[in-house]
Specification:
With about 180 residues, the chain is mostly helical. Helices cover about 65% and strands about 5% of the residues.
Length: about 180
């Protein structure tokens, strides 16, 4: 039994798979290095913010109405700083490699404010689509979206645990909160 020959649709797919034989400068490594640095710095920063918040919460004896807004403010500030880390990564790549790793197209003048805006849209996974990454830079953009999703989820989980612990005391004062490391 003979296999059927290529159809028009399969020829089209094969033409998409053809590799351009013309060599050109490929600068993938700076994007991979920037991706590892930005992601690593943001994850470590977030870990430290949550660790410091936990240490502060163990010692906190003030009003409950200040507790949650304080935690939320600290987490939002951490996320804004992480957005700035990625914007700085985009800026460094654009300054040092001048379009050789890709770039941003669309409604942008190339200012750092545009990079912050783009980074915030990617980090929060809003992705308005008015600025579009090109080239290998898309690796950094995709990693920022994944990192932002994970870190925002981490913050939401941490906030939920704080609310469960401290606001549960208000709703059920007869229940004793679970022991902390400082409890005997």
């Amino acid at each position: 039994m003979a296999l059927p020959g290529p159809t028009d649709s399969s020829r089209w797919l094969l033409s998409l798979a053809e590799v351009d034989s013309e060599p050109g400068p490929v600068f993938d490594w700076p994007v991979w290095v920037a991706t590892a640095l930005c992601m690593g710095l943001c994850v470590l920063m977030h870990y430290e913010v949550i660790r410091l918040l936990l240490l502060g919460l163990q010692r906190y004896r003030g009003a409950m109405r200040v507790l949650l807004p304080g935690v939320i403010f600290c987490l939002i500030f951490a996320h804004l700083t992480q957005i700035g880390v990625y914007a700085a990564g985009y800026w460094c790549l654009s300054m040092w490699f001048d379009g050789q790793v890709g770039g941003l197209q669309g409604e942008t003048q190339g200012s750092f404010t545009d990079l912050l805006y783009f980074s915030a849209a990617v980090f929060t996974t809003v992705g308005f689509g008015d600025i579009i990454p090109t080239g290998t830079l898309r690796v950094l953009v995709a990693t920022e979206a994944l990192t932002g999703l994970v870190l925002i989820t981490w913050s939401a989980s941490f906030t939920f645990l704080i609310m469960q612990r401290y606001f549960g005391q208000l709703l059920h004062p007869e229940k004793k909160p679970p022991p902390t490391q400082d409890d005997p």
